[in-house]
Amino acid sequence: MKKSLATKDVAATVHALIFDVPKGEVASYGMIASLVPGVGPRQVARALHSAPKGLPWFRIVTASGAMADHSRAAEQRRLLKKEGVVFRRNGAVDWRLHRWRGPSQRCIARAGLDIAWVMEAMAGWR
User: What pLDDT score does 71 carry?
Assistant: First the structure.
């Protein structure tokens, strides 16, 4: 198991992973967190507060596929719809159609993540 990253490195790694989520796909806070040793979903949410310009923050949703309860939830939904993301009757993203498949090898290398760690984490995604 890899040791935890410093706070600054966590934000940079989280940002790199979010930049890798393609148009029309979504990831949960937990999915992103599972890829970074020692990080939880709340740390991912905190890293979004220091997001660099152009980060597709709106592609990150709760584990249920719903928008997190924040002031930009309506904007998030609008931006996802604009990318073609389909929502179920309950307002959640349709995971079957839009779940992120995981980071590219290039992203994993740039973020300095362990490929074995990433593959093991992705195997736990539902």
Answer: 86
Confidence of residue 69 (pLDDT cuts 50, 70, 90): confident
CATH (residue range 7-123): 1.10.10.10
Nearest residue to 13 (alpha-carbon basis) of 34, 53, 25: 34
Distance (Å, whole) CA 98 – CA 86: 8
Domain ranges of the chain: 7-123
- Give the Cα separation of 79 and 24 in Å (integer): 10
Question: Which DSSP symbol is given to 16?
Answer: H
Instruction: Give which of 57, 54, 68 is closest to 26, Cα–Cα.
Output: 57
Give pTM, 2 decimals: 0.90
Place of tokens 């040793």: 37
- The C-alpha torsion from 16 through 119 and 117 to 45, rounded to 10°, is 40
